[in-house]
Amino acid sequence: MATKDTLFYNEEQVLQKTVDVIKRFKDQDTEFCTVYEQLAKNYKKLLKHTKLLVKMGDRQQNHLTNLAAKIEAKNQELVRLNQEKNEFLGIVAHDLRNPLNGIQGGAGYILEEFENLSKKEVIEMAKMIEQASYQMLYLVNNLLDVNAIESGKINLSLKIIDLLPTVQALFTHYEKNANAKNLSLQFYSQKQKYLIFVDKNMINQVLDNLISNAIKYSPLGSKIYIRLSHNCQQVRCEVQDEGPGLSESDQKNLFGKFARLTPEPTAHEHSTGLGLFIVKKLVTAMNGKVWCESYLGKGTTFVITFPIIS
């Protein structure tokens, strides 16, 4: 049924009027009507073929439009992958080369000046080499973790564990680091047991990252709070600092891969931009949630939650 919005509305109206006229005069002038009836049939056939061609053209256009959209999406993905490749090369060029230069330089200095160095000086150089190697190992482990995450090769060993001993052990471990920066590390716990269903090594890695980050970005003399709590539905762990806080822009990029945020480590500590990306992926893989609550100038609180195991 033709409507005024139909592409061939006028042509169909003309054809219909022609057919009506032919019917009206068919008995009066058979030869005349036969000629025009044939013309009408040919016109109808031509109109039908034209409609078919237009329909095929529309389908082709839709196909080309969809194809163009897919190509654009692929191009955007290639741009993203190229940016990640450049980020990766930048890390390899900078974050691995620097500690390697330190190791090479320190080892070379000891070899050349060993007879002239005191025991204390040798120990100091050895500590510098050890620190550089730790820095490299930290980066390599992060890159391996990212590769495992993105290739879907995270090997989860989920068990019911008590989160309290893990947090207590990390608190004890990082007290010395906090004291070195004149930071007050404080731990609060409501209960004696916090049972959750997680991978023990991975939850340790998650909390280790959050606590070390808080120490890394906290100004000298400030406080860091670690809190454990739970209700009838979930176990909640908070790591709060009194640092510079995060802007809305930083918070949007917070859990992105190779994310470089505005705040800088307060004692020039090393950062790869991969830690929080790994934290997010690991917490999600263990059916937990992680987010950040922060305001510029008022510090940052990272929160992770897991369903409670009764």
Molecular structure report:
With about 300 residues, the chain is an alpha+beta fold. Among the domains are: about 90-150; about 160-305, Heat Shock Protein 90 (2-Layer Sandwich), CATH 3.30.565. Helix content is about 60%, strand content about 15%. The chain is built from seven helices and seven strands. The chain has helices at about 10-25, 30-115, 120-150, 165-180, 200-215, 250, 275-285, and strands at about 160, 185-190, 195-200, 225-230, 235-240, 290-295, 300-305. A five-stranded mixed β-sheet has the order 2-4-5-7-6. A two-stranded antiparallel ribbon has the order 1-3. The longest helix is centred in the N-terminal third of the chain and has 84 residues, at about 30-115. The two termini are about 65 Å apart.
Order of helices and strands: HHHEHEEHEEHHEE
**Ends: how far apart?**
67 Å
DSSP summary, beta strand count: 7
**Which strands sit side by side, in order, in the main sheet?**
2-4-5-7-6
Q: Structural class, from secondary structure content?
A: alpha+beta
The CATH class of the domain at 158-307 is Alpha Beta
> What about the largest sheet?
5 strands, mixed
Oligomer: single chain
The CATH topology label of the domain at 158-307 is Heat Shock Protein 90
